[in-house]
Amino acid sequence: ALASKKKSQQQMSRRYDKVVTTFSPEGRLHQVEYAVEAINQAGACVGIVGKDGVVIAAEKQNVRASNGRLLETTKTSEKIYKVDDHVAVCVAGLSADANVLVEEARLAAARYRYAYGRRVPVEQLVQKVCGLLQLYTQYGGQRPFGVKLVFAGYDDILGTYQLFTTDPSGTYSGYKALCFGQNATNGQSLLRNEYPDEPPALDDCLPLALKVMNKTSDSEIISESTAADDASPHVDLFSLSLKDLGTKDGPKVFSHYLFPQEKIAAIFKEHLAPDAAAAAAAAAA
Amino acid sequence: MTDCTFGFVGQKHKFVVVAADRSAARSIVVFKQDEDKVLELDASKLLGSAGSAPDGVAFTEFIQKNVALYEIDNGTRLDTFATANFIRNELAQALRRGPYQTNLLLGGLDRESPLYADDEASLYYIDYLASSNKVNFGCHGYASNFILSIFDKEWHPDLTVDQAKDLVQKCIDELQKRFLINLPAFTVKVLDKDGIRNLPLAANE
């Protein structure tokens, strides 16, 4: 009796999941939930807030899928975009949807600058984007955006770095460290154990991000072979931080830095390789 | 019709004074002599307006409500620089549709924060053509013909509040002696880290 009830419930939900602007009898918006599912299958993304910067690592699924060798390498990232001097965003999910949202975020940040003459506080920017996302769950009968955005930025008023995520329902959350996408739970448990009480230095965030990336991938995404200088990068490693211009009263200048493959390899050699070697030795013993 | 508003910063940018006349008049009739034309946008901002009275009231109240809305929406107060930008932008957008004929002096105090190394008072001169400049002292209206030269001579960055009182009194005395239109009373407000208060002068009722 229980099994048939569950089946009929599933059939019931089928009636209410075709159109996003319809609640199911249980009070759910199935289209929004399906959109969230789309993102759960996306490549893993890690974000870590440090004392002097924010680090994002993102798996590039198209590279892994095609084995990378046939893809032309680019200097820009297809996962991480600059929104304003002090804000960058990492996207996961439907790339075409993501491009629309990145442009909206850029416009919102620029409009704020136009009206108030200063950089937009990151949370306000995220709220604006969420307002747009929510529209597509209530008006027009159009499907929601199948995108998760991770905003990394610096808030001038608070004087701190911040990390926010949005999801297709139009809700957002602030994080000290985050991991989502495939096998995210593995990464999240590692972060729960290893993220310190106080935001760490940027240099400590970088190896942690790569470590979490390894945890979320089935085969080690950053390993001896993939970290080799001439290997095609499977992971984008990015940091947003204030450039030290050496002048005390000068304007704030931010660095949006996409780590080249050699630097990722160097971080691997210095921080991850010794642990990997030790683990291998322990396993052999 | 506000005939004059003037203001200045003092004590190494630790306080700002914004003053305006108190007459409300049309043609040859004076309606009242106790109109307050220095609007308090919030606890740390003053906006004095000069020019067409209806535009002045409508626009400054519009700004006041938007400044309040920003604080409610975003949980943080706009700083003086951002407020000046916002005001200027509104004037600029209206300029080629239906301009507000109002000249403004925005005085504000920003507390020490990641944005400001120390408490800083600032004054912005915004005119009806939507220009905006940060200034040490400024005045709008006919008053500028009489007062600017006094400021040029007497203003210095280390003015104390007492010296500020004397400076304001000098300006008012000059206006009452030489300006054609009778301005018996003035609103003079000073803003510092302790908030906004009236500056007690003989001309202030």
Would you give an account of this structure?
The complex is a heterodimer of chains A (285) and B (205). With 285 residues, chain A is of the alpha+beta class. Chain A contains eight helices and ten strands. Chain A is globular. The N and C termini of chain A lie far apart (53 Å). The mean pLDDT of chain A is 86. Chain B has helices spanning 53-74, 80-95, 143-154, 161-178, and strands at 4-10, 15-21, 24-26, 29-32, 38-42, 45-51, 102-110, 120-126, 132-135, 137-141, 186-192, 195-198. Chain B starts with a strand and ends in a 7-residue tail after the last strand. Chains A and B meet through helix 4 of A and helix 2 of B.
Write the layout of secondary structure elements.
The complex is a heterodimer of chains A (285) and B (205).
Chain A: H1 2-16, H2 30-40, E1 45-49, E2 54-59, H3 61-65, E3 80-84, E4 87-93, H4 95-116, H5 122-135, E5 147-155, E6 160-166, E7 172-175, E8 177-180, H6 184-194, H7 202-216, E9 235-242, E10 254-258, H8 261-284
Antiparallel strand pairs in A: 1-2, 1-8, 2-9, 3-4, 4-5, 5-6, 6-7, 9-10
Chain B: E1 4-10, E2 15-21, E3 24-26, E4 29-32, E5 38-42, E6 45-51, H1 53-74, H2 80-95, E7 102-110, E8 120-126, E9 132-135, E10 137-141, H3 143-154, H4 161-178, E11 186-192, E12 195-198
Antiparallel strand pairs in B: 1-2, 1-10, 2-11, 3-4, 5-6, 6-7, 7-8, 8-9, 11-12
Helix pairs in contact in B: 3-4
Q: Keywords for this structure?
A:
heterodimer, A: alpha+beta, 5-stranded antiparallel sheet, 10 strands, globular, B: 205 residues, alpha+beta
